[in-house]
Amino acid sequence: MTEASSALAATLGIAAVERDTGIAKDTLRVWERRYGFPRPARDAAGDRAYPAEQVEHLRRIKRLLDAGHRPAKVVGMPASALDALLKDTFGASTGSAAEPALRAVAPYIELLTRHQADALHHALSLDVLRLGLADFVVDVVAPLNRAVGEAWMRGDLQVHEEHLYTEIIQRVLRAAIAAASRAELDPRHPRVLLATLPHEPHTLGLLMAEAMMVLEGCRCIQLGAQVPLSDIVAAASAHAADVVALSFSAVLTSAQVLEPLAALRAQLPASVALWAGGGSAALARAPAGVDVVADFATLARRAREWTRPGR
């Protein structure tokens, strides 16, 4: 094996980098053109091949994006500047762990870091029964997501541990949603189509939203992550949706949020409401006709107060 072929053997393809870092493939390609990073090699088939050090650099970038920094600021930074910004951003973040909500979920983080997956699943499932689904979403899942995110951004959690957490919490939420769903749709409550747009791989916020709306009598149709606009429009028609609900994380650029939102609003019938929520700061500039939902309590109230147009 030559030195060059040995180096390529230690690389990751773009799909693996997307899974590892949580950064969408299209976003990686945009950054490569716009900022000159990442700089993948090419394998024998001409496909992108990312060296391990670039993947680690991308993980650092993702931590900063999740903390609210803009891609234009951090993607082109050299490693030394990126490390300094990480230290400035998260060096004092341990103080936030003293907040009561984060202290309350610390035992779950301990189970996660000790790799006690069955115990974590059991504890969370018991909390659903003890608290009820709505309080579980607001008082356990929301602060636990924040605690896991902060631990990952500080480097206290490995990527595989964050993935394990996501899988467990999704299993718990799906089981609770199935138990809470009503067999018959009350026509006084909306049919809600849930999805994320292209470039958005995160679906946990969608499940949390579905849980809150199911409790309000909504019939929810979950399409999942990175759904093309044309498919959302077709699904909204096929399922006679009253509302299309979308989730946006902080990793997306403003253009990746605002442009498809405007396009989707233009393609959906005026009678179909378009709700958007999540951690993206770009939602503060959402186009006309898009209802931005600030938090899960507001979402539940919006679903409860919804009335069919013309009534």
Automatic annotation (TrEMBL):
Pfam families: B12-binding, B12-binding_2, MerR_1. Keywords: DNA-binding, Repressor, Transcription, Transcription regulation. Residues 11-68 form the HTH merR-type domain. SUPFAM superfamilies: Cobalamin (vitamin B12)-binding domain (SSF52242), Putative DNA-binding domain (SSF46955). The gene is ycgE_4. PANTHER family: MERR-FAMILY TRANSCRIPTIONAL REGULATOR (PTHR30204:SF69), REDOX-CYCLING DRUG-SENSING TRANSCRIPTIONAL ACTIVATOR SOXR (PTHR30204). This is HTH-type transcriptional repressor YcgE. The keyword Phosphoprotein does not apply. Residues 189-311 form the B12-binding domain. PROSITE patterns: B12_BINDING (PS51332), HTH_MERR_2 (PS50937). The keyword DNA-binding applies. One of its GO terms (molecular function) is cobalamin binding.
